[in-house]
Structure formats: C-alpha cells, structure tokens
C-alpha cells in the first residue's frame, strides 16, 4: 500500500493543485500591477468580474456526473490516467489562451471552457482513491490529497506576484504572463500524469498479480463492492432519492462557499485591511500553509477514533465560523486579529471539505453509487463557487463584502445542524440493523461509520 500511496496520492495532488491555481488565479491576476487587468479588460464595470468568476462553474456543475460516472464510457474506455491527464493538458491550453484575452467577454468564454475540462478531475480523483482504500484508511488519503493541493496552491499567490514582475516584457502586461506561464506548467503536469498516474486496481501495471488481489480482497472484505457494477437509469433514479447524499452535498457546498470566496477575494479583502498591493498577495500564502496541520490532524482522528468523523467536521465548521467573524467584524485597526481570523477560516474550511468527501464514501456501497455520489457532491462544490461569486459583490469590496460574509456564516450555522442530525440518524440506523429490523446499503453486515 505504500507503493500505491506514493504513486496515487502525490500525482493526484499535483493535478488538483494546478487545477486550483488555474481556476482561482483570476483574483490574483486582477490585483497584480495596480489592477492592470481590470483596466485592460474593463472588469470594474458592473458585475463583470463576478460574471467572469462564476461562468466557470456552470459547465463545471453540469458536466460533473456525465463525465465522472464510475467506470462509465470515458473512464473505462480511456482509463483513469489518460482521461484525467488529457483533461489536464486541455485546460492548460485554455489557461494559456486566457493570457491573450483582449476583452472581458473573451475572458468569460474561456473561463467557461476551463470549467468544461476541469469538471473531470475532482470527482474522478475522489472516486479513484475510494477504489483503492478501505473505509478506515480513506479520510487520511483524501485529506492529504486535498490539503497538499490547497497548501501548494497557496504559493500560487507568491508565484503570481513574481510572474507579474514580467510586466511589459515582450509587450505583455504582468497579468497575461501569469496565465501564460501557469498554463504551460499545467500542460507539463498533464503529460507527467499520463506517464505516472495509477489506474484502477484491476488495471495497475506496477503491482504484481498477488498484490492486486490483496488490494481487491481488502476492499471486498470492508464493503463488498470491489467489483464494478454498471450504471443504469433505474439506479440513477434510486440514487436521486437518497437524502443522505443531498445532505453531504449541502455540507460540501457550505465549505466551498468559504474556500472559493477566500481564494477569489482574499487579496481584495487584505487590501481593505490596509495592506499594500504586494503584501495583499504575499500574505495569502501563510494561511494556506497553516491549514495543512489541522487538516491532517482532523483526518487522522476521523480514521482512528471510532465515532469521531462527524464531531471532527463540526469542530472545523466552528473554526470556519469563528474565523470568518474575526476577519470581518474585528475593528479594522486590529490587523493582527483580523489576519488571525483568516487562518482559522481557511484552516476550518479546507479541513472539513475532504472529510465530507471521505465520510460520504464510507456511507455507501456499490461503485456506481460511489461514483455518482462523488460527482453529485463535488457538483455542489461548483454551486458553492457560484454562490461565492454572486454573494461577494464588486460594489461591496470597500465595505469588506458584508453580504458574502453573512451568507457564509448562516450557511455554516445550518451546516452544524445538518452534520449532527445525519450522525444521530446513522447511529439509529445501525441500532436498527443490529436488531435485524433493516438492512443498510443492501448488505446485512454493513454499518455506518460516524
């Protein structure tokens, strides 16, 4: 399994890291060189910047399930590494093209195309991880995959600032160089992914036949779904009526509203605190480095301590709520207090997001349902991106985005209730199953892990 860990998690993390950078570098590019991008593309008029931000999520949401159905036509035909690797190369090409945009309409159109290709990665990666590990090993791998990506992507702010110093080189503004260079890096990562990413256990060429059999046996003993089952219309209808999947989707959306709002608007939020343009970009990095520690700690506790998953998620949601209140409500004169709130908010949001994914994957059986769940939940992450883009309005930037802040607080207050309610329901269902009054997920031996 160490061989699997070293081949699977780092490569997926690298891919998702550049994915996060490419989808969120719009805010950094806008802030660079004294808002030169905003002047060049006239993004300061009306809601143009918000529109350019949110159009990414429309195809991203609509294509999540069609392109990510487990072992459906794309994945089974091309294999995970080819399917995900080629998608990475294609959105890298789109990122380069964004650097040559000459008006805001072109920018918005290319952002939408970026959403088309990026729709494949996160649900595909989450499903691929779930295919390799039993439930008690899933939270740590999912969190390491996610948080390594988020942490390294936090350095995208510093990288963007450094690249922006090429302003004027070869007649290109600094913001154009950000997209061009980061797009070329993405293309390179896509090529490396095709070469090194592992496929599904039954297709893993780097393992011996005995090792592959061991992996499949572990999964079969844990949840009896190591063998792929076909997706059918009847199954989709059944899955649509599964309330717990919608609750997981809501939890995930609450986290992404916070994470996307900070990813897109943190430089502007820091600027409203009185930091210079340079510091507004460089101070983005430390909170993303910090979030590595609460995320990994939370994942280890969730995997190792029986019954702790939901409580760990609630603890991180509360950190997000407290942190958001701190950076938005503490008096502007107290920069240190407000900046500390950003650490709590980013750490809380990015710690519970992968926990929700891993918890959802432990609560279901059948590969078709597993893939459907990952696509549905991550599609709601796109909904969170749209909500953040709309709620954090350009006209409220000078005031610190009050509408977006209050919405984030309200959504996550309800999120605490949703998490605890689902946990108590799972405890009740387990007791019912122990008494022989119900069968969970079609398997008499299956029990929920909370």
UniProtKB/TrEMBL annotation:
It is found in: Membrane. InterPro entries: MFS (IPR011701), MFS_dom (IPR020846), MFS_trans_sf (IPR036259). Residues 8-433 form the Major facilitator superfamily (MFS) profile domain. This is Major facilitator superfamily (MFS) profile domain-containing protein. It comes from Vanrija humicola. Pfam families: MFS_1. It is a multi-pass membrane protein. GO terms for molecular function: transmembrane transporter activity. It comes from the Eukaryota. Its main location: membrane.
């Amino acid at each position: 399994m160490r061989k699997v860990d070293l081949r699977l998690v780092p490569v997926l993390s690298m891919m998702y890291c550049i994915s996060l950078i490419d989808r969120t570098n719009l805010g950094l590019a806008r802030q660079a060189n004294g808002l030169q991008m905003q002047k060049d593309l006239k993004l300061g008029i009306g809601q143009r910047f918000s529109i350019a931000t949110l159009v990414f999520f429309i195809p991203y949401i609509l294509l999540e399930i069609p392109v990510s159905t487990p072992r459906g036509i794309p994945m089974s035909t091309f294999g995970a590494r080819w399917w995900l690797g080629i998608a990475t190369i294609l959105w890298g090409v789109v990122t380069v093209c964004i650097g040559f945009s000459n008006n805001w309409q072109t920018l918005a159109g290319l952002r939408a195309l970026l959403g088309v290709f990026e729709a494949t990665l996160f649900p595909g990666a989450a499903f691929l991880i779930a295919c390799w590990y039993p439930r008690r090993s899933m939270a740590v791998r999912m969190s390491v995959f996610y948080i390594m990506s988020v942490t390294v992507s936090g350095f995208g702010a510093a990288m963007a600032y450094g690249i922006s110093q090429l302003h004027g080189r070869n007649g290109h503004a600094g913001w154009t160089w950000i997209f061009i260079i980061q797009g070329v890096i993405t293309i390179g990562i896509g090529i490396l992914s095709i070469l090194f990413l592992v496929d599904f256990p039954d297709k893993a060429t780097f393992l011996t036949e005995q090792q592959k059999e061991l992996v499949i046996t572990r999964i079969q003993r844990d949840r009896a779904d190591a063998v792929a089952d076909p997706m059918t219309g009847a199954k989709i209808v059944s899955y649509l009526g599964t309330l717990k999947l919608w609750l997981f989707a809501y939890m995930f959306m609450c986290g992404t509203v916070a994470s996307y709002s900070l990813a897109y608007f943190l430089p502007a939020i820091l600027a409203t605190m009185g930091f210079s343009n340079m510091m507004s970009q460089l101070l983005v990095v430390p909170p993303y480095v910090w979030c590595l520690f609460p995320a990994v700690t939370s994942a280890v506790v969730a995997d190792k301590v029986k019954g702790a998953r939901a409580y760990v998620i609630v603890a991180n949601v509360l950190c997000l709520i407290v942190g958001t209140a701190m950076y938005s409500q503490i008096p502007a004169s107290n920069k240190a207090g407000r900046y500390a709130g950003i650490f709590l908010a980013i750490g809380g949001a990015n710690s519970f997001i992968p926990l929700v994914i891993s918890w959802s994957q432990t609560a279901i059986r059948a590969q078709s349902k597993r893939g459907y769940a990952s696509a549905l939940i991550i599609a709601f992450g796109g909904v969170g991106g749209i909500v953040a883009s709309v709620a954090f309005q350009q006209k409220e930037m000078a005031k610190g985005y009050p509408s977006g802040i209050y919405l984030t607080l309200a959504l996550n207050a309800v999120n605490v209730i949703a998490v605890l309610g689902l946990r108590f329901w799972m405890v009740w269902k387990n007791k019912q199953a122990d008494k022989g009054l119900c069968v969970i997920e079609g398997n008499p031996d299956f029990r929920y892990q909370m």
